[in-house]
Every structure is written in C-alpha cells, then in structure tokens.
Design brief:
seven-stranded parallel beta sheet, 11 helices, alpha/beta, 32% helix, 2 domains, globular
Length: 319
C-alpha cells in the first residue's frame, strides 16, 4: 500500500519520527507540494496525507487512485469534502493532539498583551532604565486578569483546557458551545449565546472551526458590541476574523489588543492590515509546533490508517 505525505517538511524537519506511519505501507514524504506538482506527487497513492496542501475539485484527475485521505491536522477546510464523499473516499483528521499546547500558547499571547514583558525587556536592554535613574517605570499599564471575564467561543477539548487555565488565573468563564453538555466543575462558569460573550467578556478566545457560518464571525458589528478595551485571542483559524475591521477597531482603541497565531492568508501579504495595527501580537502559526504535539499527529494519523485498513475508519469528517 502506497502512502504519500504531500507536505511533511514543516511537521517533521527531522526531530520527530515517521516510523509509525512507515510501518503501515510504502511511505513517500515530500517536504512540500506546489500545485503544479500535485499530480506527480499523488501518483499511485492509495493513502494521501496532507496538512495544508489543498485538495480541490479541480484536482480530481490527480486523485483518481486515492482510497483514503488523511489530514495531518484537525482543521479540514483545505479539502473538498463533497468531492471525496462523491468518490467514496473517507477523509480522516486528527483531534486532541495538542490540547495543552494550543491553550498554553493562547495564554502566552494573553499574558504578553497584559504585561508587555518583551517590550519592557527590550526597553531595559536599550538602556532606558539606566537613563531614567528611577527604581520603576512602565511603558504600558499592566493589567491583572483576576476578576475579569474570559469568553471562549468553541468549547471542545482545547476550549475546555483554555477555560481551566483562565479559571486558574482567577477569571470568570463564559463559553459558547453547540451542545452545552458536561459543564466544568469550576465556578463561576456559564454557557451563553455568542452575543452575550461579545457584550460581557473582557477577553475573547476563539477555538471553533472555520465554516461558512463562522467565517468573519468577528466583524465590525461584533467588534462594536464588545467592551471598549477588550482583548481578542485567535489560535484557531485566521478567517474567523475580519482583519480590516479588527485593525480599524485597534486603531480607534475600541479593541484593546489582539493576540493571534493565525491569519486569513499564510504567509501573510505585506499589506495585511493587522501587520501595521497597534497592540497586536502575531506569531507564525506555531501554537501546535511542540515536538510533543507533532509526534502525536504522526501517531494519531497512523492509528487512523490502521483503523481504515481494518475496515473501521475513525475520525471521518465527510459523510
């Protein structure tokens, strides 16, 4: 059985182990697959694995031999699910591989927005403390999170972990969830509607998938409904946020700050408005990138393949 990884270079630059997948067939790994090489790289693949390489309807001719598609990620917006459903090909993703990793990254962005440790460190290293000749100064007023309200949009495993961390910081937690099942034991906590999160939360953290319904859920209207000075975190998908509207809210001061690990186009166009907006922290999609999480992706993908080979596919995201 031929297993082809279209874009393994970022997932494994050499510090994690492909062997769990290699043990299940003849493995061929490409560091990246630009569009003009998709047909060549996918040729004779029984199992095709992708992280960010798009598989669209226009590529159907290059995918005629594929019997299973594996996503080396949780998100599946890079794959045309309807096409593979029509072809009778299951598309399987990996879930819960980096729960703590992503939640901790969101908290890191939040704490940096609140305390500006990097800004002050650079200030000291550049000699400002020495020149001031005073025992204390600050370039932005620190913010304490205790007693504030965290709004979490999407209360899956990562959203739940985010809630636990926010509670540990002394925050009240509001959550938006489709199911509203199994509320956590800590308090204060409440399931609420999205509009209530916009209006009540001091910090809003996005942990939902990108769908036609959630695209640009953070827009001019929802931003206007937020508390003045509130903070926004996004470690989910960049297109959840209307970046033009968010940049305008940052420039006006209505949005107090944004910490994001994702953008609508990656890598970003130099004209992306968030690149030039104040009080903005942007990391290059690295919340998932610990060796622990990346090895978990490989291990979970191997399990997806094994279950499919046994006729019992799991984590199937198309009908």
């Amino acid at each position: 059985m031929n297993i082809v990884i279209l874009d393994g270079g970022v997932l494994n630059p050499g510090d994690v182990d492909w062997s769990p997948i290699a043990a299940l067939g003849r493995l061929r790994v490409h560091d990246a697959t630009p569009p003009h090489l998709l047909e060549e790289h996918a040729r004779n693949a029984d199992i095709l694995l992708t992280n960010k390489t798009p598989l669209r309807k226009k590529d159907a001719h290059a995918l005629c031999n594929v019997r299973m598609v594996g996503l080396l990620s949780t998100g599946y917006d890079v794959v045309d699910l309807d096409m593979f459903t029509e072809l009778g090909v299951p598309v399987c993703n990996v879930v819960a591989y980096g729960v703590s990793d992503v939640a901790q990254h969101a908290i890191a962005l939040l704490l940096e927005l609140c305390r500006r440790t990097s800004l002050h460190t650079e200030s000291v290293k550049n000699g400002e403390w020495s020149r001031r000749q005073t025992w204390c100064y600050w370039k932005s007023t620190p913010l304490c999170l205790e007693g504030l309200t965290m709004g979490i949009v999407g209360f899956g495993v990562i959203g739940r972990r985010m809630g636990e961390l926010a509670h540990a910081l002394g925050m009240d937690v509001l959550a938006v969830s489709r199911t509203r099942q199994n509320p956590p034991a800590y308090s204060p906590f409440a399931f609420v509607d999205l509009d209530e999160v916009w209006g009540r939360a001091h910090v809003i953290s996005l942990h939902c998938p990108l769908t036609p319904q959630t695209r640009h859920m953070v827009n001019a209207r929802s931003l206007a409904a937020m508390r003045r000075g509130s903070l926004l975190l996004n470690t989910a998908r960049g297109a959840l946020v209307d970046e033009e509207a968010a940049a305008a809210a940052l420039h006006s001061g209505h949005l107090g700050g944004i910490g994001t690990d994702v953008l609508s186009v990656e890598p970003p166009d130099p004209g992306n408005p968030l690149l030039h907006a104040p009080n903005t922290l942007i990391t290059p999609h690295i919340a998932w990138a610990t060796t622990r999480a990346r090895q978990a992706i490989i291990d979970l993908t191997a399990n997806n393949i094994r279950c499919w080979q046994q006729g019992k596919p799991v984590n199937v995201v198309n009908a």
